[in-house]
Design a protein that fits this description.
By secondary structure, this protein is α/β, with parallel strands linked by helices. 30% of the residues lie in helices and 20% in strands.
Length: 410
């Protein structure tokens, strides 16, 4: 594999609040070999003069849905799995070219999608997958309309990837084991009502404590963890008390629950851009009035949830949760957070914190010796103007994944 020596630019270390000058980075065999504020000598490396641009680690999105390619999820019932995989490949490529070199899929993507990326069949970021999220009957992952009863078969359509129903401890244990068997890196459960689902109140508390504990126990014994979709403070409290490691969304959190999260070292993964995009564009893609009303409730609580979590010392990750046609709003998450977080803290969420969430500290999220050579060359200073990351990749002069350029206009 080729080796490269980057020099002449400014270096973004997410552990520091200012860019550094005079730092060189040597990449060999797909990894960062050396980072130094002194000149690095290499006889074999291709020298790349950054000409004052910013060199930084690749971004990580910890809440994405690669294959949920419709805002109105019900439309996936008429999408065959082969077409869904093809659409997912296009979505992943677009995410990579926005600068996201790692994705944590929180429901939908399976081992086949992950393997296709690893084998070079699809161009996309590193993937960590949940497989099918677990939901109780009538919960956020329920696919049936209110007029439907009995079993619902979606095994041959994209709707199958939106979730699986598991009721009671035995079924939850079996479903958790089955998703892990199929290659899930983590387990996703639905612990409260949601915006997109059509039959559950937003404030509903989903899964009994023993069911949540069962999923956590199975995942823990496998060596992994559970993430939970949860909005209300009570839903978050129940999930964290049962051992859930990451709370997805969390818009309606309160200070006591945030304190509990900090004590239990649980992570919060907000997804503010999802509600912003749904309000602006959801009606164009068939989002129901019921969903729009629920979206309005969580939209206005989003920034406050960040302030509450930060005050309590909760580690905050970076997610987007955009469905289908809304995914081109991906990088708006950076600017939405500016009202509650500093630019360095936002970038830390999308690098260091998310690397911890996917348990890849020292491998992704920062450019240090031994890390994967996942990096971006940015026209501009993201610390001074984080909106340079918003432009759908237009301000990225180069993107490298595992030591290989996927974009290079230097």
């Amino acid at each position: 594999m080729s080796s490269y020596l980057f020099h002449g630019g400014r270096f973004l270390d997410p552990r520091k609040d200012e860019l550094q000058d005079g730092v060189s980075v040597l990449v060999e065999d797909g990894a960062v070999k050396e980072v130094s504020d002194r000149p690095i000598s290499s006889t074999s490396a291709t020298r790349i003069d950054l000409r004052g641009r910013t060199l930084m680690p690749g971004l990580i999105d910890a809440h994405i849905h690669v294959v949920l390619t419709e805002v109105n999820l019900r439309l996936l019932a008429d999408v065959p799995l082969t077409l869904l995989a093809a659409k997912g490949s296009v979505a992943m490529r677009a995410m990579l070219h926005r600068g996201f070199t790692t994705l944590r899929d929180t429901g939908g993507a399976d081992y086949g999608i992950k393997a296709a990326v690893e084998q070079g069949l699809f161009e996309g970021p590193r993937l960590f997958i949940a497989g099918q999220p677990l939901s109780q009957t009538g919960g956020h992952g329920e696919r049936r309309l209110r007029t439907e009863s009995g079993n619902f078969c979606a095994c041959c359509s994209g709707l199958n990837w939106t979730g699986r129903i598991a009721d009671g401890v035995p079924e939850v244990v079996k479903a958790t084991r089955d998703e892990l068997r199929k290659g899930a890196d983590h387990i996703k459960i639905m612990a409260s009502g949601g915006v997109a689902s059509q039959a559950d109140p937003l404030e509903s508390l989903q899964y009994r404590m023993d069911e949540i504990e069962a999923a956590v126990d199975e995942a823990t014994r496998w060596g992994t963890y559970v993430c939970a979709h949860a909005y209300s403070a009570k839903a978050i409290e129940r999930a964290v008390t049962a051992g859930v490691r990451t709370i997805e969304h969390g818009n309606l959190i309160d200070p006591p629950t945030a304190k509990l999260m900090a004590e239990r070292r649980a992570y919060l993964v907000p997804t503010l851009v999802a509600y912003d995009a749904l309000k602006r564009r959801g009606p164009d893609y068939g989002l129901s009035s019921y969903s729009l009303a629920k979206n309005e409730l969580v939209l206005h609580a989003g920034l406050r949830s960040l302030e509450i979590a930060r005050a309590a010392g909760v580690k905050i990750g970076f997610g987007s949760d955009l469905l289908g046609q809304l995914q081109n709003d991906h990088c708006t998450e950076f600017v939405l957070r500016r009202e509650a977080m500093s630019a360095p803290d936002i970038i830390r969420s999308a690098t260091l914190v998310n690397a911890e969430i996917v348990r890849q500290e020292g491998k992704i999220g920062e450019l240090i010796a031994g890390a994967h050579a996942d990096l971006l060359v940015v026209d501009g200073d993201p610390y001074r103007d984080i909106s340079v990351l918003r432009s759908d990749g237009k301000n990225l002069a180069a993107i490298m994944l595992g030591g290989r350029f996927v974009k290079n206009s230097l």
